[in-house]
Amino acid sequence: MSGMQIIKKCIKCKKTKKLDEFYKKYRSKTKYMNMCKECVQLKRKQQQENKLSKKKCECCGKTLQLQEYDINNAQSNKYKDICKQCFKDMQTMKLKKCDKCRKEKPVNQYYECRITEDKLFKDCKPCCNTYWGRNYRDEIEQTERYINNPLFGRGI
Ligand SMILES: [Zn+2]
Ligand SMILES: [Zn+2]
Ligand SMILES: [Zn+2]
Fold first, then answer.
1. Would the pTM of this model clear 0.85, i.e. be above it?
2. How far is the C-alpha of 142 from the C-alpha of 130, rounded, in Å?
3. pLDDT at 1 over 50
4. Ligand whose nearest atom lies closest to the CA of 126
5. How far is the C-alpha of 116 from the C-alpha of 154, rounded, in Å?
6. What are the C-alpha distances in Å from 28 to residues 10, 16, 22, 88?
């Protein structure tokens, strides 16, 4: 067959390459990926490196770039478990112990709650978000339902 395609243009590097320089699509015998093998491997490597250069903050629970953390030990090149912002908040704000993760966190890491003495929820925001889902805050603001929920009360 003369019209059979034996070369293909890579959408990433824009080079025209032979078909065997492309991976076949998953579960396909005839279809090839739009990116050449070289670019696929490069992309994988970059993704890997990106993952390694990020870290989850123990306080706010966000996954942040390493530069958002102070170095804890210069020799071992280890970063603190808490991001710079949370670290700063810890110096300037009141701390409150989370009922769920038992960690002390600055008060801005807690949602407001009308029925508790300190007007703050007993679990920290990351714990609430994990437990209740992202839109948790909207939910408590829209409804009074929580008052009847024992999980929201104090000292149970
Ligand atoms: Zn390529
Ligand atoms: Zn943080
Ligand atoms: Zn917590």
1. no
2. 20
3. no
4. 3
5. 7
6. 18, 21, 13, 53
